[in-house]
Amino acid sequence: MKSLTNIRANLTVAKLNIDQNPGTAPKYGIRGIPTLLLFKNGEVAATKVGALV
After folding, report:
1. Per-residue pLDDT tens over the stretch 3-38
2. CA nearest 42: which of 32, 29, 28, 31?
3. Is the pTM of this model over 0.70?
4. Of 50, 7, 51, which is closest to residue 32 (Cα–Cα)?
5. Is the bond leading into 34 cis (omega within 30 degrees of zero)?
6. Cβ(46)–Cβ(38) under 8 Å?
7. Range of the domain at 43
8. Residue 1 has what DSSP assignment?
9. Which of 8, 21, 30, 45 is within CB 3.0–4.6 Å of 40 for a Cys-Cys bond?
10. CATH number at residue 26
11. Res 1: pLDDT
12. Facing residues of 36 across strands?
């Protein structure tokens, strides 16, 4: 994984347990775990389902 130390942007990283937040998965169409959602300006800009390799 590349280092993000040289990027000068606002970045928030969050982890969400969908068992504790059951309304989130259907809201974003999450059907597999793990799922990574990248947001830009409050909208989903990219989605990756499965292991991040």
Report:
1. 666 666 777 889 999 999 999 999 999 999 999 999
2. 28
3. yes
4. 50
5. yes
6. yes
7. 1-52
8. -
9. 45
10. 3.40.30.10
11. 46
12. 48
Place of tokens 């068992």: 19
The residue type found at 44 is: V
Q: Which residue has 């169409």 as its token pair?
A: 29
CA proximity to 41, closest of 13, 14, 10, 15: 10
Residue type, 6: N
53: confidence class by pLDDT, cuts 50, 70, 90:
confident
SS (H, E, C) 3-53: CCCCCCCCCCCCCCCCCCCCCHHHHHCCCCCCEEEEEECCEEEEEEECCCC
